[in-house]
């Protein structure tokens, strides 16, 4: 029931903006993306049947930042775990929203050991968080390096999809997650969680398609989730 109300509210907002406020057609796509972003966040994070939590401080340490670290650790098996002590320091920085400091520590780890998969993955996440969810060129490079070390690992593709969702690019995120899941070994760490999140995203996309009052303009074909690194030594 809650989902029906949420979708009706989103559809009503879009209809009001288009027909009553007469938002220019050129802005329809941006408005639809903003609504889709909000619905994606609700689908992936919310639990309508759960009672409200006790009030906490607005910047309670260990909230969203703790989740970022915990999500990465969900995708790290024993064979993927970094042996660098600075990973612990970088995680502490990330939990305090000090993503630039975390990235500095992690860059030092990757410089000393370019084969450290977890450090590259953590670096990509820290750089993305530092840019408020935007997939910057340095973050994409870090994810590429991690993917080059372990091409079938679901971690880089998962976090790329998270970044795309935060930018409202749900279809591109869906493609990234689907390709990542298809390439991941059955026993890969984090694979089950990725499959569950992909199913929830598919459900959200189906609900958006069923309740959308108007079709947005067609998007260009999405690119491959993580473009291959340039030829040559990827450790540089």
Properties at a glance:
236 residues, Serine Threonine Protein Phosphatase 5, Tetratricopeptide repeat, mainly alpha, 10 helices, globular
What is the terminal-to-terminal distance? Answer: 53 Å
What ranges have pLDDT less than 50 throughout 5 or more consecutive residues?
Answer: 45-66
Number of helices: 10
Number of strands: 0
Region (Disordered): 209-236
Transmembrane segments: 25-44
Keywords: Membrane, Transmembrane, Transmembrane helix
Biased composition (Pro residues): 214-236
Explain what you see.
InterPro entries: TPR-like_helical_dom_sf. The chain crosses the membrane at residues 25-44. Residues 214-236 have a biased composition (Pro residues). Keywords: Membrane, Transmembrane, Transmembrane helix. This protein has 236 residues and is mostly helical. The chain has a domain at 68-209: Tetratricopeptide repeat domain (Serine Threonine Protein Phosphatase 5, Tetratricopeptide repeat, Alpha Horseshoe). It is 62% helix and 0% strand. The chain is globular, with a radius of gyration of 19 Å.
